[in-house]
Amino acid sequence: MAIDIRGNVFCDRGPVIRGGFSDDHIQGTGLVKTKGEIVLNGLILLHPGDSIKIGYEKQGRVNRIPRALRVLSSFADPFRRETTVSVGCKLTMLENFRESRKTDVAEVVDYLEVDCKTVNDIPLNIPLSHIVGQCLLSLGLSTTGVGVSGSLAIDSFDFGSGYVNILSDILQSNSLVGYLNENETLVVSSLYSTGSSPVLDEDDIIDVSPIRSGESLPTQYLLTTATIASPHPNKKRRRRNRKMTTSARSETGS
To answer: Which of 93, 119, 150 is the C-terminal boundary of a domain?
Structure first.
C-alpha cells in the first residue's frame, strides 16, 4: 500500500517523507509476506531486525498499519539528511534462514508412548503438523492456530530448504494462507470460500473495463478495480485506501 499523503503519517523512528509497502500476491503461495521502503527525515541509526511501527491519522481517526514491520537494511544520506529504510515482516526477514538439521519420528510428541518394538514392526509417518510446529519454533513465531492435515511416509525430514519455504509449501498444499498481523502473530485462513453472498458488491467497484492489451481473450473477461478490506476473510470489513486489480469471469450460457 502507498502511504496516503492526505493523511498524517507517523513513524516511531522519525518523520516520514515518503514510502510504500505491499503484501505478496495471495495466489500461488502459502505465506503472504510484506516488503517495502520508507524515507525518514534526518540521519537515523537503525539495525537489521529492529522493529518499526507506522500509523496514520485521517479525519480525526488514528490507525496503525496492520503489519508488524522490521528493518531489513538502511542507508543514511548525509547530504540530503535522509535515511532510506527497507522494511518487511519477519517472514521476509527470515526468508533465507535455513539450518542443516533434520527431524524424525522419535521427536513426534504423539509417538512418545509408542514402544521401540512397535516402531520397528509398524513404520510411523511424520505428521505435517509436527513439521509446521518445528518451523514456527525455529522462526520464533506464535500463531492463532494452523489446522494442517496429512503426514509424510519418511523416517526423517530435512529443513535444509528453509523454514519459511517449507511452511509456505505445507500451507499451500492444505489450501491455507497465512500472514503476520500487527502483533507479529501468524494468522492462517482457508482459501475455500463459503456462503452465497457476493465477493464484491456495488460499494466496492470503482471501475469496470475490458482488457484491451496483450493477447486476445474472450469477451467474458473483465478488469475490475475494487477496494479491499483485509486478507482475513472472517474479519469485519473496513474500507482502506487500497486498490487491487483482478480478473473476473462471468458465466455465459452456451
So the answer is: 93
For residue 240, the Cα-to-chain-centroid distance in whole angstroms is: 18
Spatial distance between the Cα atoms of 1 and 154, rounded to a whole number of angstroms: 42
Contact predicate 98/163, CB 8 Å: yes
At 221, is the pLDDT very low, low, confident or very high (cuts 50, 70, 90)? Answer: low
* Euclidean distance between the first and the last CA atom of the chain, given in angstroms as a whole number: 41
Integer Cα distance of 248 and 250 in angstroms? 7
Helix axes 128-139, 163-173, angle to 10 degrees: 140
What pTM did the predictor assign? 0.68
Sequence-distant (≥ 6) Cβ neighbours of residue 60 within 8 angstroms: none
Query: For residue 233, how many C-alpha atoms fall within 13 Å in the half-sphere facing its CB?
Result: 16
Place of cell 479525519: 59
| Whole-number pLDDT of residue 110 | 65
Do 62 and 120 lie in one domain? The reply is no
Which is higher by pLDDT, 123 or 30?
A: 30
Residues 127-182: tens digit of each pLDDT: 888 899 999 999 999 988 888 888 888 888 899 899 999 999 999 988 889 999 99
Number of domains in the chain: 3
C-alpha span between 250 and 220 (Å, rounded): 6
One-letter amino acid identity for 125? N
Amino acid sitting at position 32: V
CA atoms of 191 and 211, how far apart (whole Å): 26
Quote the domain boundaries for residue 134: 102-190
Euclidean distance between CA atoms 207 and 7, whole angstroms: 24
